[in-house]
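Run: sequence + zinc ion -> complex structure.
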Amino acid sequence: MDKEYEILDSFIRFRGLRHTPQREMILRVFLSVEGHLSVEELHALAKKHDRSIGYTTVYRTMKLLSESGLADKVEFGDGIPRYEHKYNHRHHDHFVCVKCGKCFEVAHAGIEKLQETLARERDFTPLWHTMQVFGLCKDCRGIEIKLQ
Amino acid sequence: MDKEYEILDSFIRFRGLRHTPQREMILRVFLSVEGHLSVEELHALAKKHDRSIGYTTVYRTMKLLSESGLADKVEFGDGIPRYEHKYNHRHHDHFVCVKCGKCFEVAHAGIEKLQETLARERDFTPLWHTMQVFGLCKDCRGIEIKLQ
DNA sequence: ATCATTATTGAAAAACGTTTTCAATATAAC
DNA sequence: GTTATATTGAAAACGTTTTTCAATAATGAT
Ligand SMILES: [Mn+2]
Ligand SMILES: [Mn+2]
Ligand SMILES: [Zn+2]
Ligand SMILES: [Zn+2]
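>> structure
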């Protein structure tokens, strides 16, 4: 249940860092929301628990969560990186609607396998990948057609 | 041969813009290098032809080249967007070595088709996509193994 | 519990790539 | 040539992220 806190704690100890209430709180806030959140959004949420929490601390902590494997930073091409849960969440790609910004998560073993094959053919060792499909969701495509 | 200049010219006329030596020179510089170049690199090259060319003009012109379909902006996760040729270059994905930065271009119809299928299943109209595989190239994997 | 060591914090400043502003200039149409 | 206005380059502004720094807090040893 609280496996994520254990992971952060052992990562902190392993690196000779220190456990702080700020770090624990930011992890709690991060875990409380399923989705893709910017540092600004995370800081706003964190402030509800500790009005004096600093923007810098959120930046630093999210970097820590990434390094410990709890969070993943994703970029959807609008210049605002967002974080999503990584622990107990399998890898997936993103379909982003360029009209409304909605984001669909897609996991497909075939694509992963194909990437492995292409990499192997080029004597390239894949470590991770990102794939984003930009387009129009059902709702926004309708609007698009009406407008034209 | 000079189809690219025609494309830019008609795009400029279509939008009620003006033909300038700066725009023509930046296009020339851009076309002269096959690869992925940052605005900084393009500006440095442009300066060899016109010492007084402004950074801002390169930014503005590369945006124009993108809009006219001559250039494509790509991001490899290091925070530095780069531009590559788009005209007469078919779509491809990127395999980026995280050690040396080398970038391999991979075009594969199967992946494109798979993406189409996944999109259709979700009632999503794909417009474009980006796929990047990060990992170690042949040379850098060797070093990695030796170091461990 | 006290102490010493040093990691962490939050505010401010700096850094970074990019965009906006603006006055001077260049382009294109008449 | 005249006019209208798009373009230019420098500087300033911008938005996000990182760095700096003095105060504070966490940890381990005594
Ligand atoms: Mn996701
Ligand atoms: Mn390419
Ligand atoms: Zn939509
Ligand atoms: Zn390499």
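>> summary
The CA atoms of residues 24 and 93 of chain B lie 29 Å apart. The domain at 93-135 of chain B is CATH 3.30.1490.190 (Dna Ligase; domain 1).
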